Fold:
Amino acid sequence: MPNKRSGGGLSAAQQVAKFLGVSVLAGAVMAGIALPAAGALGLAAKGSVEGFDEIPANLKRPPLSQRTTILDAKGGQLATVYSRDRTVVELKDISPYMQKAIVAIEDSRFYEHGAIDLKGVLRALNKNAQSGGVSEGASTLTQQYVKNVFVEEAGDDPTKVAQAQQQTIGRKVKELKFAIQVEEELGKKKILENYLNITFFGQQAYGVEAGSQRYFSRSAKDLTLPQAALLAGIVQSPSRYDPVNDPAEATKRRNTVLQRMAEVGDITPQEAAEAKTKPLGLKVSKPKNGCIVAAKGAGFFCDYVREVFLNDPVFGKTQEDRAKIWNRGGLTIRTTLDPQAQKSAQASIKDHVKQGDDVATAATIVEPGSGKILAMGQSRPYGIENKQNETTINLSVDQAMGGGAGYQPGSTFKPIVAAAAIEGGMPATQQYPSPYEMDYPSPISACDGKNWVNQENSKLTNENESEVGPYGMKEATAKSVNTYYVELISDIGICPVTEMAAKMGVERADGGKLQQAPSIALGTQEMSPLTMANAYATFASRGMYCTPVAIESITQRVGEETKSLEVPKSTCSRAMSETTADTINTLLKGVVEDGTGTQAGLGSRPSAGKTGTTDFRYAAWFVGYTPNMAGAVWVGDPAHKRKMTNITIGGVWHEKVFGGEVPGPIWRDMMNGALEGKDAPDFNLVNIPDPPKDTGDENGDGNDDGDNGDSGGNNGGATDGGGGGTDGGTDGGTFPTPSFSLPEGFIQGTSNGNGNGGRG
Structure:
């Protein structure tokens, strides 16, 4: 005698025998219920023993897709993201009212029959024959669960979803066989639990917990009788019985469920009558899906976390594999975002640049020595492109990670040139004539034994005619003297600079290679704020470069189990000696103390940094750091069209924008708040003697803070979200007067990529 199934009813073998024994009846049922306009011929082919046995015996039950929760470093919630809003709960955490209501209205004989309810089939057949249509179905709760599994497996592919819901004989037979298997394996209580977690309740809510939260803002375990009846009634047609859009129809359906519960003895007629008098009592919570609703202004950081997950092989061999895990959800992602730093960054951005301004700002903070991204924000919020200056482009990161083509960093690139020179043995006291105007030296050695040649006879100038050397490295850095840095790169060659940049993680935002031209010294290659912040973190950590990381840990819930996933780790390597880094720190501390970056100073807290402003003022920068935090601030037009002259930013009018004047104060306020309450260690400074002055040279006034860069370029025009173009970075001081007099675009697109420029 066959064994009884754990859920009650007939064994699997008996179910199959009984199914086959009523094949003629089943043919009529399928013709009358599933496909009333078709005959029973379709089932005749599928209703044989051979056809039934050909169906695979194992129903694949993929883990249910759930919401993913993204947390900051302290455990605070930043966002929830999901393809389907679902939180899986156990049956014990679902109100008994809900359990009884769904059974009463969907399958009142659920605990009495097996996978197939033959009495229900006959009853439905009779009613449908009387009505001449399909007025009642015959699917058991188990069969409905199996159908939902097919839909879940189809994911977000509309074609596969449609196939999973097809009302065909073949699908019905397949559904019946899998229902038998599920009853055999799971039993009634587990089937009910799974059904309540998988089914759709409308309003983007999948599963009873999400449905309960959506309509009543409470957990499924706390549902009252009227609330449970409402949810149970929605399942048959979530759009028709949507209580938000049609409360009258939803109330009728709820009362039908209550009446049915009384008829089957789950509640008394008095309880049903009383519950019917209750209002719907909705307390609707809007769906909060995705980075667009992220807390703490962290929408773009949230999006960056998603990009990391979809692009890093640690989460799967292929992008498709990684996308499946992401869409399945059930992840809890703890990130590196520091809530104090993020709050300070957003507050400073809001104070200095308005959403509706002609230009935008983006700011990023990283932790030296670990690569952890502590803050990431911008003035144009995450939203619909071109709507009220909203954008989906992350202005802080490279194009491959959701950013634009980047922005020329201007004179903020000069410290990388200095680091390459010092690492190669150049003393920090090195002097050059540094005239106001000069030809680009030629030839200059580049990589692979090649030379750069000034075929265009390109010239460059300093910011002001008063800027005439000789200058040593300390003063040239503080004043950001263009001609000094071009003489420096012509002396050491281009290749050591590009090699040092690579060691510091500095690369073009568009993914292209750094160009082999001396104008690189003046910041003509487009970079992202994250790249520049992390590069300067190398100086702060005394020469150790660490790749940026955004994720601390991930746990994943699969079924009833929770497991930890491997996450990308920061890789740290020595980019330069401690002595070289200490020397750069000494140089850049002088920029903040008495150079072009004085408005970015942090008072008694030791800090260092560099200003940068591109020629024609399409972009302005301040990149700076303390020993425990490094940050970059960029201001400009993402489309690279609006010059920052005669412009109002944050309610303040500027005749000309300089790196020290607009980005500098943003950086200062951002860092002050981010560092509040934290230690204030000092740098390991070195002694850089002042070179002897040529007392006969009266051309320099010694007080000009002009910060120069380079405007030349074989760089292409900007793409949306990134500042391209040919104008180089100049870095102006407090209020220097640009000296570049050639017409705009005069040397745009030349092959050698040189010109004048960078103010700061």
Observations:
- Confidence is low (pLDDT under 50) at residues 1-50, 133-137, 695-757.
